[in-house]
Write a structure and sequence with these properties.
3-stranded mixed beta sheet, binds protoporphyrin IX containing FE, about 50% helix, 5-stranded mixed beta sheet, single chain, 13 strands, about 450 residues
Length: about 450
């Protein structure tokens, strides 16, 4: 069959200049789903100044991740988001350059490193959770944000809780706010200017510590990047270590915190699943050790289902470098494209009752995620598939373990969720959770 011509694709109509940006801000799940119903599995989406071709079918998503012939640029896709503040990260690199950097970085995510991270998470979490109220209301967004920042201090930098970590965390959040800033202007007083200054302070903190870490290695990610080498013994330069450390921190933070928030939301609405996860956690004991993860299968199912319904990276951007065919569409060079992970993970051709929270869809005998190789891609695929996938899943499960052992949690009667794009999904009101402490065990 001849490919569809790019010019013949259905296009959304929106307001002049802003397109659908405002509608998307108001309803980041409902709007793309409506467009898919009206226009089909591939359409040109008018979003502000960018008009990407959005692919929603898992077949097309597979094509995009495979990128046969290297016609797509990941760097050009992500540059508008990260280019200014985090230019050296893996998503800002293409093809051979990317392969080299990823090969060096891989060793920092080896099983021995992950095992150590799980140990540190279990050790650090009780102190971080002490900051939550014993009973009453907590904002899930603030609570999990703070928690993941504390953990990142230990896991990424090897920093202890205290004023030094508070200052680093503050700079990191300022940097993150700059990445998300709508105005790409660095005038004094703007979010972007503050982010550039915060980045300078973070670099000034890390730079003198690279040599120290190279001389005496530490098991945090920063220390591991100082040590990391590929099979030919090639290592990162000091600047590269710093760039990658900051980028990893950024890639990890919003995504992991966001998944915890949305998982807490699902469990707050579903006391039966919350009890299943808690029963396993109570049987396991105070910590969830690396070699006993399999004893909390419900935690795994719940995390998977939450990432299906609310993928923290809702779509992944690419730009065509030369003419190519993706998902049956002939695209010219220079076109922005997006794989909609969100739409594929709720695609009616694959999933039964796709908008429903139903963790058992991931268990045998249903195993719906095996119906199509590319229908479940919260961590992307192909050459740029998430390097922190196991790290993230472990963190989500260890955090859940500690939270459900301390509290039962629910939502106020009649609570209605409103989401905002971050570009993942964030409850507009911070998601107020009602905590009640578990009675001490006999
Ligand atoms: C639930 C949490 C997370 C989700 C849903 C997630 C999702 C993703 C996705 C979809 C991509 C692919 C982007 C693309 O192809 O354009 C990606 C890439 C990446 N992620 Fe994650 N991520 C998570 C957590 C983490 C963590 C914890 C780390 C590090 C500790 C991390 C590090 C990275 C890196 C370095 C890349 C770029 C890989 C490359 O370009 O080769 N992520 N992530």
């Amino acid at each position: 069959m001849n490919p569809t011509r790019y010019e013949d694709l259905p296009r959304t109509r929106g307001l002049p200049l802003v397109g659908h940006s405002l509608a998307w801000m108001r309803d980041p799940i409902g709007l793309p789903q409506r467009l898919q119903r009206e226009l089909g599995d591939v359409f040109v989406h008018h979003l502000g100044t960018s008009h990407p071709v959005v692919f929603a079918h898992p077949d097309a998503i597979g094509d995009l991740f495979a990128d046969e012939g290297g016609a797509l640029s990941t760097a050009a896709g992500w540059r508008p988001f990260f280019g200014r503040l985090l230019p050296g990260g893996l998503l800002l690199r293409d093809h051979d350059d990317h392969r080299h950097h990823r090969a060096v970085m891989q060793s920092a995510f080896a099983p021995a490193a992950l095992r150590e991270h799980v140990r540190v998470m279990n050790e650090r979490l009780p102190a971080s959770l002490d900051a939550w109220p014993r009973r009453g209301r907590v904002s899930a967004v603030d609570g999990f944000r703070r928690l993941t920042l504390d953990l990142a201090g230990a896991l990424f930098l090897g920093a202890e809780l205290g004023p030094e970590l508070d200052a680093l965390t503050h700079d990191f959040e300022t940097l993150a706010a700059g990445v998300a800033a709508v105005l790409p202007v660095a005038a004094p007083g703007t979010a972007l200017r503050r982010a550039i200054e915060a980045r300078e302070r973070l670099v000034a903190y890390l730079r003198p510590r690279v040599a120290a870490r190279r001389a005496s290695p530490t098991p945090d990610l920063f220390g591991r990047l100082c040590e990391a080498a590929d099979e030919h013994g090639r290592r990162f330069t000091d600047d590269e270590v710093i760039d990658h450390t900051l980028f990893l921190w950024m890639a990890a933070h919003d995504t992991t915190a966001g998944s915890l928030v949305m998982t807490a939301y699902q469990l707050a609405r579903d006391p039966a699943w919350q009890s299943r996860v808690r029963d396993e956690a109570l049987a396991l004991g105070e910590v969830l050790p690396w070699d006993r993860m399999h004893e909390s299968p419900s935690g795994e199912l719940v995390a998977q289902e939450s990432l299906r319904l609310h993928p923290p990276v809702g779509s992944v951007p690419r730009t065509t470098l030369r003419p190519c065919v993706i998902g049956g569409v002939a695209l010219p060079a220079g076109v922005p494209v997006r794989a909609s992970i969100l739409l594929a993970q709720r695609h009616r051709a694959v999933w039964s009752d796709p908008d429903r929270f139903d963790p058992l869809r991931f268990a045998e005998p249903r195993a719906e995620h095996r119906r199509h190789r590319h229908a479940y891609r919260p961590f992307g695929g192909g050459a740029h598939a998430c390097l922190g996938m196991r790290f993230a899943m472990l963190q989500i499960r260890v955090v859940l373990h500690h939270v459900v052992r301390r509290w039962r949690f629910g939502l106020a009667p009649g609570y209605a969720l409103t989401l905002r794009p971050t570009p993942g999904f964030r409850p507009a009101d911070g998601l107020p959770l009602e905590l009640s402490p578990l009675a001490p065990r006999p």
